[in-house]
Specification:
This protein has 368 residues and is an alpha+beta fold. It has a domain at 2-35 and 114-220 and 323-367. The chain is 54% helix and 12% strand. Strands 4-3-2-1-5-6-7-8 form an eight-stranded antiparallel sheet. The longest helix is centred in the last third of the chain and has 41 residues, at 327-367.
Length: 368
């Protein structure tokens, strides 16, 4: 049985190891995707908190002074006091200090940082393969499943000896299979729990339709979806202001802070995304739709009161990304992702050295 499990472990690693390595490296970076974007654009992302933020009307006026005639398409509001606001115009995004209205920076055209992070994101999701069959995504979801097999089989193989520590650390030891064997065992067992969380939640995300079906059966709840709504203009009516929309959204989902607001066309509706203090994911997971003329709430869904099936799906994603406890859990999941990549490298080196050792006698006989 041990030989069978060992051969299964080796075969799965050789077949899927490259994809698991990609998942590990990209996942480690994605854990801090938002933080990296802010760090590279610190001058326009961070502000000194003031006593009170200006209204969206005042911030709009400040942005349009530099770009008169452009149409405002939306706002990105900070939910932390030391972050800037963004006013989205037709051709560019203007970053403003929410306390003074000062323009901190402008993004027009491609953003190299955003493009690089998006490339890493898409590599993690679908290996940059975009086709009708979504082949890349299919490979990734099954690669996640192989991670579960590798972890469980690796735990089985480790158990008899229970070897944890790396006893050889000199430069000369790097050339030995024993060093990589020790490292493979130590990294594997110390990160197994976190890697299992990453792998299982990743599989759940990859097979999200099946996961949602399971969650619905477990909780006996159905997810709520935003309707295909339109605003109904009345003669002489004017759209309500974005500031009024923020007030309505706060009342519709009490305790949640709006952070993303669109400016709709003539028949469109305001769509507001909000975030509770415990919602550490970038998306926030709370939504409000408002008729732009009457101010009527057409749809409201808070992450605290969402159907249980939706809350389970959100929890699964938060576990996978490390958002669930903020920075500490992000660090853990980032390190676990790197551990997955290191396991593929150390395992490959062990296999290669084993192959070379087995081939050495044959080469000696040929030479003699």
């Amino acid at each position: 049985m041990r030989k069978l499990i060992f051969n299964l472990h080796l075969l799965v690693a050789l077949v899927a190891g490259a994809f698991v390595f990609v998942l590990g490296v990209t996942g480690a970076i994605m854990a801090f995707e938002n933080e990296l974007a802010e760090w590279f654009h610190a001058g326009r992302a961070f502000v000194t908190p003031g006593p009170q933020a200006l209204s969206l009307a005042e911030l709009s006026s400040s942005a349009l002074k530099s770009y008169p005639g452009e149409h405002i398409r939306g706002f990105h509001l900070a939910t932390r006091p030391n972050r800037s606001f963004a006013v989205v115009l037709g051709q560019r995004t203007v970053f403003v200090n929410p306390y003074t209205g000062a323009v901190l920076g402008v993004q027009s055209g491609p953003d190299r940082v955003a493009e690089t992070l998006n490339t890493i994101h898409q590599l993690h999701l679908r290996l940059l393969i975009r086709n009708q069959a979504d082949t890349g995504k299919e490979i990734i979801r099954w690669s996640g499943a192989t991670m579960v097999i590798l972890l469980l089989s690796g735990l089985y193989l480790w158990w008899p000896q229970k070897h944890i520590w790396v006893t050889r650390w000199s430069l000369a030891d790097l050339a030995t299979r024993a060093f990589w064997y020790d490292l493979h065992n130590a990294v594997g067992i110390l990160s197994t729990v976190f890697l299992l969380v990453l792998a299982i939640t990743g599989v759940a995300i990859g097979f999200e339709k099946q996961t949602m079906t399971l969650f619905k059966r477990i909780t006996h709840t159905e997810p709520a979806f935003p309707p295909d709504a339109h605003s109904t203009p009345s003669p002489g009516a004017s759209p309500i202001s974005p500031d009024r929309v923020v007030e309505i959204a706060r009342a519709a989902v009490p305790g949640a802070a709006p952070f993303d607001i669109n400016i709709p066309d003539a028949q469109g509706v305001y769509r507001i995304r909000s975030r509770f203090p415990e919602d550490l994911t970038g998306g926030g997971r709370s939504y409000v739709m408002v008729d732009q003329y009457s101010g009527k709430v057409l749809f409201a869904l808070g992450s605290r009161t969402a159907p249980a099936s939706v809350r389970l799906l959100t929890l699964n994603r938060a576990l996978h990304t490390g958002d669930i406890f903020g920075t500490p859990s992000k660090v853990l999941m980032s390190m676990a992702s790197l551990a997955a990549a290191l396991q593929m490298v150390s395992g490959l080196i062990m296999w290669w050295k084993r192959i070379r050792k087995a081939a050495a006698p044959a080469r000696s006989q040929d030479q003699s």
